[in-house]
Amino acid sequence: MTDPISRRNFLASSALATGALAAGAVSAATPSPHPRPRHPGPNEQITLGFIGTGGMGRGLINTFKRFDDVRIAAVCDVYEPHALEAVSTSGGNPDVYDDFRRVIDREDIDAVVIATPDHWHAIPSILACQADKDVYCEKPLAWSIGEGSLVAKASEKHQRVTQMGNLIHATDNYHRIAEIVQSGCLGKITKARVWMARDGKSDFLGTPENGTPPAGCNYDMWLGPAPERPFNPNRFTFNWRFFWDYGGGFLSDFVCHLVDPVLWGMKAKAPEFIVASGGRYALDDNGETPDTLEVIYRFPTDWQLIWSLQTSAPHGFRGRSSGIEFVGTKGTLHGHYNDYVIIPNPGEEIVEPEPTLPRSPGHHREWLNKIKSRELCSCNFRYGHELTAVGHLGNIALRTQEALQWDSGAERFTNSEEANGHLFRNEYRKPWDLPKV
Predict the structure, then answer these.
(1) What stretch of H or E contains 299?
(2) How is the chain split into domains, by residue range?
(3) Contact (CB, 8 A) for 270 and 382
(4) What does the pLDDT look like over 288-338, one tens digit per residue?
(5) CATH top-level class for 170-203+233-356+381-413?
(6) pTM value > 0.90
(7) 99 HSE (CA, 13 A, CB side)
(8) Which of 66, 103, 294, 306 counts the highest number of beta carbons within 10 A?
(9) Which helix (H) or strand (E) holds 373?
(10) 49 Cβ contact partners less than 8 Å away, ≥ 6 residues apart
């Protein structure tokens, strides 16, 4: 993990990146010109670069390194211990960087895997698409609705093979729930509910004092486009998701998992009305995002979705810490990641449909296969944007305390300019800005 060769590579690449930035060699918003790469053939290796190698990033390295047709050429993280641990995890000798643009600039890399905090999803994803790299990006797709829209547009404009890291989507159980709902055997669906019930103990952050970034951390690069803030341990690894500068709390973190079978099963794209209420009521710490939240979404075809989050509820809800429910005129389906049960209404007999949806070879294998075939992935960035936006809409309704009308075609709120102000970050910290798409 602390191999001196890997450490030398990391320090050399850091010095190279610093020199390039000082000379203005690479714009923060415009990638270097790239010739369109040759796509790997069916029997050829795919060369990957990893951007963000914390816990999730190293988990993805562990997953992808098991495929015989994958070569890991580069890893990148602004925190040196994470970058060097990624080298050890890879089982090889990838080059090490602390500036993601050095990875994107490499012509030998076919595709990149992005597992940074949410506020660092959009810029690398767009630049990678513009550099003709295929992209796997962890969920949620982007920090805001506006960013997600640009990421999806960039992937389509440059014809990239993309997959958002929503791996439960590939399971047989989620396919089965979606095709049951689509079949109509539950009758007309009038309500869907997804919920999370937390014990509260594991979510308590405390109130540590501001301090100095740990050794080996390029904190300025970690902040990137987010506002300048003093370093606080709770704003750093993992807990960053509970601060509005970098994430959107449990709603942004889990919407892609829990709401996925709802949009999929209902063949829905976006709600038209959103109202929310909640706050950080149970936890007395320095976190910002809600620990208690109810969001109601009304969809155009006369049904609604309810998101429920409750902290200090170790007993769960309906006996489960999280779950999914569809209420139909003939019966109700309760489900979760790995199972489901159907409860018929009195006097109703529900016959489950035959399988209709093609199954996935696995979320990560699917992306690799599609890189070679140049076909659309099931969690491509357009779908990822639609799914992620549901979470952002709920958070915007909470933060504005308004009942919002949403025009999904225009991607604008029709009744609130304050809400429209949340579609993008008010100001991107220099020298960072969103690339033009």
Answers:
(1) strand 292-299
(2) 170-203+233-356+381-413
(3) no
(4) 999 999 999 999 999 999 999 999 999 998 889 999 999 999 999 999 999
(5) alpha beta
(6) yes
(7) 20
(8) 103
(9) helix 363-373
(10) 72, 73, 74, 75, 76, 103, 104, 106, 109, 111, 112, 113, 133
